[in-house]
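In practice, a research group might receive sequence data for several interacting partners and want a quick structural hypothesis before committing to experiments. The following worked case mirrors that situation: the sequences arrive first, and a predicted assembly follows.
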Amino acid sequence: MSENMKRIYLYTRYERSWHWLQTALILILMVTGFEVHGLYTLFGFERAVDIHNVVGIGWLIAFAFFIFWIFTTGEWKQYVPTTKKLLSVIRFYGYGIFLGEPHPVPKRKEAKHNPLQRLTYLGLAAALLPLQMATGILYWTYNYWEGWGFYLFSLDIVALVHMALAFAILTFLIIHVYMTTTGHTVFAHVKAMITGWEEVEPTVAIEEWEKAA
Amino acid sequence: MRTKLIQISIAVCILSVGLVLMLYRPLSAKPDEETGRILKPIPGNTTESWTTADHSKFEALNRDFETGADLTKACLSCHSEAETQLHDSIHWTWLSPYDDTGDTGKAGYSVNNFCVSSNKMNDTDCNSCHIGWDAKNDGINCLACHGQTSIQWKDEFRDYSFFKEAGDLEIASEIQQTIREGVKVIKLPERENCGTCHFNGGGGEAVKHGDLDASLINPQKTLDVHMGVDGQNFRCTRCHTTMEHRISGRVYSTPASAHRKSLVEDDLVPKIMCESCHTSEPHEQGHKANDHTDKVACQSCHIPEFAREHPTLMWWDWSKAGQMKDGKPYVEKGEFHRYTYKSYKGEFKWEKDVVPEYYWYNGSLTTMTIKDTIDPEKPVRVSWPVGSPGDRDSRIFPFKVHRGKQPYDKKHNTLIAALLSSDVDGYWKTYDWESSIERGMALMDMPYSGEFGFVETEYVYPTTHMVAPEEDAVSCSECHARSESRLANLSGFYMPGRDSFHLLDLGGWGVVIAAFAAVMLHALGRIFKNGRKKED
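A structural hypothesis for the assembly, expressed as tokens:
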């Protein structure tokens, strides 16, 4: 650990709990979901479906609280996308990181996400995950479609989208977990998501556009 | 203020997840409270015959009977409408009431892949199952359904007149005594009565149906939860309700009960089905199985296998008939001590604990007649379930499919009904296909080109008896499985666990693996380049 590192409190208690709760829920959904998809036998089809349904509904409820939190606290501003410095961030991960260059957009209290993260997390929180929940709900309520007069598409389309999104989330998960190792130590980012305190280099100034509030 | 808000949010969040987990009910909760699980008892005793009449005290029955018809007259002297009612029933006519042309039915032009046809009731062996004393030529044999099955009534009367005419009055009077004693016991039909024909159709026990055989005379609950003598002990008529001697539950071309009404809702539904007593949501509340009942018949899950006690015939190859040993017909027995070959019938294959084949079924079967043209290039579906995934009245239903080879007319492309019975010098006596086919077809006024071959055929029986106890029901994963799904043959709908989109799976895993490979390479790059981590 560098001595001139500055400790900043980046993730609130709720944020951290939410993050790890969602991690657990998504992992369970992944494991049971791929079992329901016929990939392997772990819980047995019936149990896997039951767990998947219950955890899925749990996720939905927890997600609603996250939405509530993000708007009441103004944290939504952290997710506003920008193209500024986006290319330098991409260049950093593709090239600069190998040369030991500093991160072009270090974390700050007012700007905890770099432009690439903003884009990714916005895509996740606003599109990918809600769509996954929506298709999950549709899948779950398949038997009521007729009663609702819902004939927009058939079960196979819902299953197709749900599966495609599952692959997308799994892909995100792999990259996301790997990216946590790119901090100043391998476990620095993971530690931060547990304790809330991130260590950043103090020298870089925060630019005005980055500030969330 | 803000931290407080956040703390409350976390608490509510965790609580609600916990609440959902608590509301979620495990599969094993209170099974006995499900609708229709235990039938309310009928007032009185359902397991014994109950009646206000003791036939042993009836004057009309307290005399000698010379013939079967003579006995029937005595029955009709009180039961004045019985004959009229029965003459209108399929048990007598052997013709489908749903076909105005009169072609459909055992007495008509219908064919199967067992003994093929009764040749319009001229193939006399077939008539042993008719409820008349002499097919339709004489009166109704009331005792077939209402008498003791330990007595062979037709034989007794035949023997009686034989010995009487031969002048052996002592034996004749002994037989008459058996008849007079037997007549005193008149009852509602019991399982043995129905079973005499329905357990033995097709020329032997367990030949035709896979779910109806002699093991149902005294079954345990494990074989049939409804009929089990250690359980509900249903007789056949508990479900096959009767009105004016017309017995419900026949499957011919009767459409399925179009409205999924149960007796619980309306006790006037005409067709008794599982749902009549169990309703359309018989499982514990919230159980996914309740969502299946509109597409999957109860039988599909609750009859995991048929022929669980006695093996049933699955293959009958007439083309092998006629082989001789030392110039004589012979028989061979195989597994299960069942005949695997008979010179006069051909080759047989028997199976036990048979997993049904599943098809969409709306309650109707297509049935072929001897007038129908066939395509001999592929197996001919002599009878086949009607239904499709898109049809609202169709459900996935379990079937016994009996396959075999039987003769067909090579020029006319029709099936052929040879005359078989020995009594009438059929194939079983002559072993001559040509003459028995010619005579058989002539008796049905059907043309025969003179050239016959053998064609493979299929014939279905809906499986509805031998309902197993709950714990033996088919589990989800036996159908919702990538490989070896019980429903592997059914297409046209998406089934979770069984189906997938190959391209999506391929692409999905491709992307996942590519991502994994990319981060691994990236990590390697960082390690080799002695990146920023070490400089720290």
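Before designing any experiment, note the following. Residues 25-29, 531-536 of chain B have pLDDT under 50 and may be disordered. Residues 102-121+191-478 of chain B form one domain.
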